[in-house]
Design a protein that fits this description.
Shape: globular
Number of domains: 1
Distance between the termini: 8 Å
Helix content: 25-40%
Largest sheet: 4 strands, parallel
Low-confidence stretches: none
Number of strands: 4
CATH class: Alpha Beta
Number of helices: 3
Radius of gyration: 12 Å
Strand content: 15-25%
Strand order of the largest sheet: 2-1-3-4
Mean pLDDT: 86
Order of helices and strands: EHEHEHE
CATH architecture: 3-Layer(aba) Sandwich
């Protein structure tokens, strides 16, 4: 299973064990607190993930909205980092 995570590094470190417990082996991570820009290639990865996880500290942006819209259009679950445990029986 694969996931796309949009959060700060600190939140990602906290949530990565939960993702591993779910069986996530492939993680595409975007540091939403860094100076990096969420680019089109990151959006292009959305069709290839099983879930998109938004950290509580993820900053909203136009491209982040595109990630969410793309995931929802493809019926890919979009969850907050608090809800990762609720995915236990879904995959």
């Amino acid at each position: 299973m694969s996931a796309m995570v949009l959060s700060s590094v600190k939140r990602f470190i906290d949530m990565s064990p939960k993702l591993e417990d779910l069986g996530v082996k492939n993680i595409h991570f975007y540091n939403s607190r860094g100076n990096d820009k969420l680019t089109t290639p990151m959006v292009a990865l959305v069709p290839f993930v099983d879930v998109v996880v938004l950290g509580k500290d993820a900053h909203c942006s136009t491209l982040m909205n595109r990630v969410v819209e793309e995931a929802l259009a493809r019926h890919i679950p979009v969850v907050s980092d608090d809800c990762i445990g609720d995915l236990a029986g879904c995959f």
